């Protein structure tokens, strides 16, 4: 879990009513994904659950009665999550033997 905090910028002349947290991954850095529903305007901290084996960057957009702001600059350093053991066993484990002294094991990833 990561804790994100931000400081509000200029409100554009209308009160900020909410924030939208977005993230991207090192696998697809050009695609920004909305983390979850809009966060109320008085809140400036949120907690995000992140899958293992990832590198994530975050940015925040503010919203007032007109529309969303341009996104903030992304976080300076990516948030890296540690590896974790698999949650399930492989399925369809099978062996193939074509040559003496050689064994090939294959399986399906769940």
Automatic annotation (TrEMBL):
<feature type="compositionally biased region" description="Polar residues">
    <location>
        <begin position="70"/>
        <end position="79"/>
    </location>
</feature>
<dbReference type="InterPro" id="IPR003961">
    <property type="entry name" value="FN3_dom"/>
</dbReference>
<dbReference type="InterPro" id="IPR036116">
    <property type="entry name" value="FN3_sf"/>
</dbReference>
<feature type="region of interest" description="Disordered">
    <location>
        <begin position="67"/>
        <end position="100"/>
    </location>
</feature>
<protein>
    <recommendedName>
        <fullName>Fibronectin type-III domain-containing protein</fullName>
    </recommendedName>
</protein>
<dbReference type="Pfam" id="PF00041">
    <property type="entry name" value="fn3"/>
</dbReference>
<keyword id="KW-0677">Repeat</keyword>
<dbReference type="InterPro" id="IPR050964">
    <property type="entry name" value="Striated_Muscle_Regulatory"/>
</dbReference>
<feature type="domain" description="Fibronectin type-III">
    <location>
        <begin position="1"/>
        <end position="84"/>
    </location>
</feature>
<dbReference type="InterPro" id="IPR013783">
    <property type="entry name" value="Ig-like_fold"/>
</dbReference>
């Amino acid at each position: 879990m990561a804790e994100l905090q931000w400081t509000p910028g200029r409100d554009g002349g209308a009160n900020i009513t909410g924030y939208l947290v977005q993230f991207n991954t090192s696998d697809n850095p050009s695609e920004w994904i909305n983390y979850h529903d809009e966060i109320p305007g008085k809140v400036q901290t949120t907690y995000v659950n992140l899958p293992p084996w990832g590198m994530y960057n975050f940015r925040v957009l503010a919203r007032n009665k007109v529309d969303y702001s341009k996104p903030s600059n992304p976080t300076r350093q990516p948030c890296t999550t540690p590896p974790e053991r698999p949650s399930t066993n492989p399925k369809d484990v099978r062996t193939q033997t074509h040559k003496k002294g050689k064994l090939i094991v294959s399986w399906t990833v769940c």
